[in-house]
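We modelled the chain as a single entity of 586 amino acids. Its sequence is:
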Amino acid sequence: MSKFKKVLALMLAAAMMASLAACGSSSAPAETTAAAEEAAETTAAAEAAETEAAEAAETEAAAEPAAEGGKEFRYAVATEPTTLDPSKGNSVGDNEIQRALTEGLVRTIDGQVEPGLAETWEISDDLLTYTFHLREGLLWSDGEPLTAQDLLYGFQRLVNPETASPYGWIATDDAAHIVNAGAVLAGEMGVEELGVEAPDDSTFIIHLNTPAPYFLSLLGSCTEFSPVRKDFVEQYGVDFAATADKNVYSGPFILTSSENQELHYAKNPNYWNAERVNFDTVVQYIVPEAATQVAMYESGDLDMVYVPVDMVPEYEGMEGESSYQNGNDDFVYINCSSETQPLLQDKNFRLALNYALNHQEYITLATNDVYDPATTFVLPLVGGAEKTYGEEYGSTLSAFPLEGDLDKAKECLQLAMDAAGYSDPSEITLNFTCTDNETEKKIVETIQYMWKENLGINVEIDQITYGEKYTDVFPNHNFEVGYGGWSPDYSDPYTYLALYIGGSPNNYSAYNNPDFDALLTASTTEQDPKARMEMLAKAENILLEDGAMVPLQYRTQHYLLNQNVTGIKFSLGAVNLDWPFGDITQ
């Protein structure tokens, strides 16, 4: 039984514990008294059995914690990954896993772009063509050569409609601007028309529709742009990457097991930069209860743990405690085309929800004053023209009042009620979707209380799993309002604003404003950085004035880290916890 299960059993005061014994054997062939002519067959059969047993033992051992003397890093997360398929990742958590298992053309670490599979590259004078030169001798984890053809297949698979990747849009003009990506994703062109090519095994070329100053950073942060082995996809079909053995790996680590709410990683000896990898094994536990995670850390069963907001005062300042702003911008998604609650189609009702929220009181009640209140949408820390976006344009945005505005909220609500024929706010019921995560539920209950108290409407909470929310409910607009957030894929306001482009697959809110779309489109071809940022600020103001979402908070994440662990990076963006090149002293 794993240490995780022991601690969890204690936390839940379980009455019984199962006793598990792992066994693996490798024995010499048994002696035989059979006739000499049978000896060879018997020996061959025994040797085959021995080989099979040894292979089974090796596989089993790979999924076990590091042998004595090996370096093992252990940590926990609250939710399972939505997928282990590198082409289908859909969250920061998915990205962090693939960060260890895959290697892209480049790798963005601590905001800096470093060479990855590509040793060098050139960018054309018009900034539209990127030519990457791969390293010699690249190998997959099974020892097969890794070539530009694997990158070609990975890029094409990402936007192939048959893949149904929830992040296929990242290659389109909503982000990377790769030629024909949108048309391929929409099924209007074949994957061979995508603006990428592999003229030989060591050269990979990407063509863009328009310059993107953040393009290399995007490639190095989003693991969806990873090589994929075509033969494995064809062999396993829909089961590709469903389990650890149904994939092959290009990154610093291989996945040896994904069973029993635990992900086990082992160092990939065929990784091109294996000398940089210090951990022999890594274990990632899936533990929904934050208090259980902290208990595991205190008992020595974890090397790193995030501290939930309600426990921060207890651990703040202790040895190993620290914090960082992880880039998460949390807000209430509003289904602007909701049929089950048509009031959400009315701008006045959406604005009422915004003005009824006292952001300062909300931060205190929901986050123990750990997070920073957000009264606008785009994360202020992302890059602007010369400074941060917040420094340059924060004062020009139509921010909602920090303490709310109840008079304005009630005025907007009355306008919406009059238009819809309601006589009393108590006649209105709003369904609020969130995951089964404890911290998230507390946040939603705080908002529920404020809307009930300040507007007089009814709010019902609908809890679902993290996977359901981001693979079904949100993408298919099967909600009225829902709690969610966004972490920037690159340091630019566009990564946030693109969420609201009409018709975009990532536009969970089904928001549609032609003026907003026109500004986003114009910004993709504007060469003057300042003029471009002004367009994006105007676009954000349109969202705020339409009440397209309810801004909530910018997250400051507190954590506890074993003092013997070094080299772990905590950053803002598509990857918060970056551990593949960490180390631990014995």
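As a brief sanity check on the tokenised model: The longest strand covers residues 321-334. The radius of gyration is 26 Å.
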